[in-house]
Every structure is written in C-alpha cells, then in structure tokens.
Amino acid sequence: MYAGLQELGVANGEDLKETLTNCTEPLKAIEQFQTENGVLLPSLQYALPFLDLHGTPRLEFHQSVFDELREKLLERVSAIALEGKVEERYKKLEDLLEKSFSLVKMPSIQPVVMCVMKHLPKVPEKKLKLVMADKDLYKACAVEVKRQIWQDNQALFGDEVSPLLKQYILEKENILFSNDISFLQNFFSPSPKTRRQGEVVQKLTQMIGKNVKLYDMVLQFLRTLFLRTRNVHYCTLRAELLMSLHDLEISEICTVDPCHKFTWCLDACIREKFVDNKRARELQGFLDGVKKGQEQVLGDLSMILCDPFAINTLALSTIRHLQDLVGQDTLPRESPDLLLLLRMLSLGQGAWDMIDSQVFKEPKMEAELITRFLPLLMSFVVDDHTFTVDQKLPSEEKGPIPYPSTVPEAFTKFLQENRIACEIGLYYILHITKQRNKNAFLRLLPALVETFSDLAFSDIFLHLLTGNLTLLSDEFALEEFCTSLFDGFFLTACSRKENVHRHVLRLLLHLHHKVAPAKLESLQKALEPTKQSGEAVKELYNQLSEKLELRKPSPAEVTEPPSMELPLPTVPTPASR
Questions:
Q1: Helices (H), 435-497
Q2: Where is this region: Disordered (predicted)?
C-alpha cells in the first residue's frame, strides 16, 4: 500500500509504527508526525479544529484533499501531452514518469503514473518490462501502453486476441444455427457497417490503434487459423477489420494495406448485394493492376474474396446476369461482366489452396464452365419460362408440355467436380426456392446429394435453404414433396453430418404443423439422436418432441362417441316354428 514512498523520502505507515514503538510520549509523537507530514498551509491550522467540532474525521478531510489533487494532476498531465513542442512535452512527461514510477504499485497514486505512461509514445523499455512482469500492473495499464508491450511480444498479444477470435466464430455459428428461420432475415441481412460495430471487431480495432505491426500480427493470426481450420469466417473478419479502420480514417494502416481500395469497392457491392458495371470495372482494374513481383497481394485479395458475404454478392450477381442474358439472347462467353464475376469467384474459392501452397497465381478458369455449365443453367431458366407461358395459354391452345422432371447428367457432374459450378448451381437452387418454384426445386434437388466438398451440406447453404423453404410451407403437407426433400436429400447425410441433423430439426421446429402426421411420426423416429450425437442435436430434438406432444389430442378427445345404432330384434326363422 505504501510501496515507493520511502524512495521519495516521504514517511509512511511503517515509519509511524517505528516512531510509536520507540517513543516515551506517544501523543506528542503523533502530533509531531502530523505536523511534519500534513498539508503545510498556515491557514489550515485554524480550520481543522472547526472540522473537528463538526465530527469530520481527519482521514476523511485528507482523503478528499488527496482525491482533488489527484484529479487536478491527471488533468495537468493530459494538458502537458497536448501543449508546446513535441520534444518538450515528452521530456516533461518522461521526467514526471521517472519521479513517480516508484509509486506505481500504490493504488491511490497508480492512476497518475498510468496516465503519464498512456501519453508517452515510447515508454522506456525497462519500465515496460516491469509492467509486463506484474499481472496487476499489466491489467491496470491503458491500451496505449499495452500496444507498446504487444508489438515486441507476439505470444502475449496472441493470448489477448485468441479469446476474441473464438468469440467471433461462435457468434457467426450461433446466427447460422438460430431457431429463428425466415427468408426475410438471414445470415447475410445485416449491412457491412452494422457488422463492423460488433464487439469483437471494435475491440480488435481499439487494440490495434494506428500500430501497423499489430495489424500485421492480427492478419497473420487470421491466415494461420484459416489454413488450420478452413473456416471462412476468418476471411470475413479480415475484411471487416480493414473496413473498421477505414471508417475511423486510420490512414497509417489503410495506406500500407495494398487491399484497401479493392476491399472498399467490394464493401460497397456487398452493401448493395450486387456488382454493377461501374464497380465491376474498378474491381477489374485492381486485379489487372497487380504488378510482377507483387503477386503475393493475390493471397490477401483471395482471402477477402473468400469472405462468405463477398461470395454471396458475386453469386447473386452471377444469377442475375444469367437471367439478363436469357432475355438478350446472349451467350455467357460474350459478357465481360459475367466473366469478371467468375474470375473473382474463382479467386475467392481458391484462397485456401493459394495461401497453403504459397503459389500466388490466379486459378485457371475451366472453359467448360463458361461454354457448357452456364448455358445449361440458362436452359433451366428457359424451361421455366416456357412452362409458365404454356400454363397461361387458353386450354385449347395449350400444348402437351409437362414440366421436365429429369436432371441432365452434365449438371450433376459439374456440381460434383467443379467448385465454381457447384457454388453457382447452389445459388440458382436458392433462387428458384425463393421464387416458390416447386417444380424446378424438385427437379434439381437430387443433384444436391453429391456435390463438390459436400457444399450442399454446408452450414451457410442449409441456413439459406431452410429460410427459403418457409415460402413453400404449404407443400410440406404433400407426401411427394416431403419424401423428396427429407428422404431424398436431408436424411442421406444426417447420420454422418451432425450439422445437417441440426438444420433439419430447426426446419421441423418451424414447420412441423404443416407436415402430415404420418410423415411427421416417421421423421421423428429417423431423427432420434444417437449416443454419439452432440448436446445441440439432443436439445433441438427435445424441443421438437415437446411441441409434437402438445399437438397430440387429449385422451378425452380421442374416446369414441357412443353408438347411435339400435339393436335389431331377433326374428325366429320358419324352421324353428
């Protein structure tokens, strides 16, 4: 409590204890100690007895004076940090720190010492080491001081950042598995600026400040974790962090990050959920502007394009372009904007391979993706238009055109073997589901059972699909629809993929009242958790069981009504007479 006072020649509690132990007249010794160490103001000698008359303890008086002086001192330190020439102000602060640092462990003086260190751009290394070695001091010091400690201690900085990164991933997963299913509000609904206000992004932004070295460390953590886990949410955080610093106009970092302008432009596209012609040209300019010898920047650009929010925007824009091309009778290979979208999708989807291999080169686009797969998707759009028009014709003019029910083998093969084709194909299926196009959905659903890297069973796709399926809620009463969706798709993966099990239970929690009772009963049996199932699955299953139990009619309702038929009188047969 009194640490450091002796070094400054100020008496403390231990000195008083020693004086009282060795003196013959304790009262005189106390009076002398008060005179020597009290507030040396002549006028105060007359005021103190007045306070005594009011029953105000001397401790309370001295404490209030001390608190007031400390506040004035804190204000003065903050003022010194802003006035005069830079060299002079920092010299004053350094001198003040030298004089006061011995009191840093004294709780009442500590805030002043910490304030002095906070305003020093470079705290002497010796003092930084002393702060770092003491847990309580380290915890008490300002983030401005911690930055100076962290920039030379990557492991310590990693310990501070790690819980935040875990929290960030958990928050994203909680959104994907939320029980609130809606096509209006989903994972991609919040705007980029809203997302950047999240607790983790704001804390990391504050921890980094204007320190380029700390920013580079965080980026390195994100790259390492992305490589280790393949979790694309780290890519989202990489983009959000840069744009958060952009919002605060931290030019010290934004000007040295070669991805800044590209990310800024892409952020505007994500906000609109569409890449327009003007921004497409800007993005292309950034990609074409990567000079020889600077190819490493492609690794960072690919990570930013791997952000699910970027993929979502690029895929939605691709589907929209394809629809426009159908109306213009134009082939995909003749659309530069469409080819750029595919180029960026390819770069984003190849992020992990590029960073892992350290071969910074844009992935080569497969010609068949453009010449065969995209025209195939366009033919699906034409099939839908043809069928819709045919249905609107008067009955006498209708042709015998049933809706195509088979999936072209080429479509299934592309979804299995080509990552970009698979991504676009899945977004097309989300698009037709959102349009309530049951025929098209049931036609293409079998192709989702086997896809590239099981993308059709990824959390983001299933989150979006379950939301869009609420638009087809009335179809859940039909046996054929439920059999195709559950038996033909979901249940094929439930036993081997727990996330699929969770998404199916989420969907049924929302739409169980629409499903036919017999089908619901068989689904309940099929979805029963095993011993290996996680707590989340068991919890969802219990919630579903409770809801279904509440829907069952009570025994009183089930009892059969008394028979209204009267018994027939027995009539003797002629033979018995």
A1: 438-444, 459-469, 479-482, 491-494
A2: 551-577
Asked if residue 262 is part of any domain, the answer here is: no
What count of residues does the chain have?
A: 577
Q: Are 183 and 468 in contact (CB under 8 A)?
A: yes
Max Cα–Cα distance, the chain, nearest Å: 143
The Cα–Cα gap between 204 and 237 comes to 10
Non-local CB neighbours of 479 within 8 Å, separated by 6+ positions = 516, 519
User: Quick one: 276 and 222 in the same domain?
Assistant: no
Q: What local confidence, expressed as pLDDT, does residue 32 receive?
A: 76
Cα angle value 325/327/329 (rounded, 5°): 65
Q: Do both 422 and 475 map to the same domain?
A: yes
Give the type of residue at 343: R
For residues 451 and 523, state if they share a domain.
yes
* Distance, CA of 380 to CA of 407 (rounded, Å): 10
Place of tokens 């196009």: 437
Q: Distance of CA 438 to CAs 249, 387, 407, 485, Å?
A: 49, 13, 15, 11
345 and 380 fall within a common domain: no
The residue behind tokens 């209030």 is 64
Spatial contact of 62 and 37, defined as CB atoms under 8 Å apart = no
Collapse the DSSP code of 39 into the 3-class scheme (helix H, G, I; strand E, B; otherwise coil) and give the result: coil
DSSP 454: G
Q: Which residue has the tokens 């080169």?
A: 361
Residue 553, pLDDT score: 66
User: Cα 293–285–266 angle (5° rounding)?
Assistant: 105
